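for ur thesis appendix - ABC transporter permease. copy paste whatever u need, i formatted it the way the template wanted (i think)
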Amino acid sequence: MENLSWTGALGPYLLPVMNVAAIVLIAAVIARALVSFFAWVSGADALPAGGATLTARRRGLGPTLDLAAQVALGIILVAALLIGLAGFVLPGTSKGILGWAALRFWPVWLALILSFTLSIRFKRRLGLYGKLMDSPVGMFGLAIVLFWVFTAIFAALIVTHDPLAQLSGMKNAVPGSALKSGAEGQFSWYLFGGDHLARDVFSRMVMGAQRVLQIAPAATIFAFMVGITLGLPAGYKGGKLDTLLSFFANLVLAFPVILLFYLLVTPEIVETGIPMYLAAVLFLFPVIFVTILINARYRTNPSRRNLYLGVALVIGLWAYVGLAFNQDPLGIWSMEPNMLNVFVSVVFVNSPGVFRIVRGLVMDIKARDYVAAGQTRGETSWYIMLWEILPNARGPLIVDFCLRIGYTAILLGTLGFFGLGVSPESPDWGSTINAGRRLLSVFPHPAIVPAIALMSLVLGLNLLADGLREESLKD
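the 3d part is after this line
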């Protein structure tokens, strides 16, 4: 079997065009920056007529350079799209590495098209999420985030090999290498090469997304429930409660985040049982939060309140016993010890930051007229905090939520890099980067591929947060 090239049969035709477009794009960007700089330094208002004319000419170049950059970028994107589409049309080795990779991600492309079609169609009914469709930055970030979310969901359909399988002759294989001795029906290439243990880098990258997205969003949700449950009364009531909770939050925040995160998952700390005790405390907060939320909302309707509370408590305590103590008799709620340690550490490290943000927002919002109106109606404090103040603080909290998922992904990658991830053989990106860095100067692909994946996910979350911030400010 023949090895694959990066761009396949279309490469000889499209690569020269892409190279020229890339040169034009870089030159246009640099020239645009220089024109803007000199126009700002010269200052048209402070110059005589000749200087003002020169400045006007420089500024007049701006639209031309912008157009050149946009055209060049468009050409690059169209060429890349054609190379990707070739994977759906051309046969075998003609697809190239990028064409085959695009074809393997077909469930992701289909899900993305369906998601954006429905989102744009019903954007006026989707609240803040729908308004995101009017923000180019937000849509681009959302597309990147959804790409990795759908990759994690459809990982089993995308991977080309078992991410833990070691195939003979594929140790440190370069991208596009054909299998030396593949079985019948087995995918014939290592698209992004092999690592130092002859495992497929492409498949490990795909499964690594599943690992990151199993922990980061769920742990961030738990941290928000802890921070909101404590931050609301601290900001609303103030006094000794606020002083005490703020002291403990500041105590945790005084430690460097990476160091604290590192200490909580080291074997010596794990042996003391501290993560288990933290899980017993922190995992109670989602149950407490939901219970208070339902009780505050349906306080005046006891029959519905009791029904909803009963269901919430049964499910919540069932999940609590399974996740915190691994004692679920049905085996539905459970967590591996290593994952539990990482999960608890993420919640513990992020909760104080969320507490500080919620507390500050509540202290600002509690002076608004609608809060005073709720107090006049005789509403309880928890009702005002959860159903009057919290919805009006959703914009900054949603933005912070997206950013914290990105920070958590970086923390998980850092733990994996230090060998403290969920398991030694796990395909998580941090562990893969750490394993590949030892031969980085000779075989860079095993480390670069997961590093780019991690960078793109964090970039997407940051862009999504920027888009959400822009739209939330318009409310």
